[in-house]
Amino acid sequence: MVTMQRTKFGDMACSIARTLDVIGEPWSPLILRNVYVGITRFDELRQTLGISRKVLAERLKWLVENDVLVREEYSRHPPRFEYVLTPKGQELCDLLLVMVRWGDRWLAGETGPPVLYRHHACGEISHVELHCGSCGEPMRATDVDVIPGPGAE
Amino acid sequence: MVTMQRTKFGDMACSIARTLDVIGEPWSPLILRNVYVGITRFDELRQTLGISRKVLAERLKWLVENDVLVREEYSRHPPRFEYVLTPKGQELCDLLLVMVRWGDRWLAGETGPPVLYRHHACGEISHVELHCGSCGEPMRATDVDVIPGPGAE
DNA sequence: CCTGTGAGTTCCGTGAAGGAACCCACTCTA
DNA sequence: TAGAGTGGGTTCCTTCACGGAACTCACAGG
Question: How far apart are CA A101 and CA A86, in angstroms?
């Protein structure tokens, strides 16, 4: 078992806290981002991120334990490995798109966004918006009421 | 000025890294969540989160410096303060909804989600889905091509 | 045989997290 | 008017995780 941050959030009755328990430490989303764009090997990750070997090894082990990544051998003789997104990890990348959107809007400055995203369906350079899974209309944080669910404490 | 984690991400040409520079440390999203649901005072935050006064004070100062929260005096004599979301902070709460969605799907277990969200527009208990800002169709991490933008290094 | 490379592990010093104690302005109650 | 209580912090201290450098190991190529 790997330990992460000081205070463990996994036991809180809160999906945000539980999500943070998996990727709430600042390197993990960047690791995920790089794996998502095809940077999947240990040394590639280390060089592109500027992370220390030690911390990278810890994070990768944690993400594998939590079923976000899988470690796959792509060459025996010599033994070489890469890290691949699981379905659970793929869906986490959606979170990255929302982080990108916020960062582009509020932190990009005059030079504009460093990376653009072209939507396969329409071919346009675009960004994500949040819609309701039920009615399809826009659904922002200001558009909802928060009520206790079955897993409340 | 408050300093945050060891490695600063703000200078990277990456909107994810820049966003993480603001809220990439694990307590910040939980603080934001609580302010979002109306827990806005220092001691309320401290008690509900179980965070130390020291770290809470640091995080709040950081979030205020980064224009995510504002510190407002709601009573002079005695002097009392609350923390309120800015527009920039409101939009960050959208990120929380996406974290909730992922946590509900992958980490909630048999008891089900601890919190439910009712969409004002349709009145249904629902969740967010990501759609394209251009064509309105679903837009997931697997539905886009990543290409360099004007702010690339 | 020597060098190089991918993929880590080990060791060590510093700084942030977490906790406890302390502080200050102010109010309430006896 | 003395004493207790409360909100909103600050200071101090310990411990643990981060970041960096050095080391390891399996293998390949020249």
Answer: 23
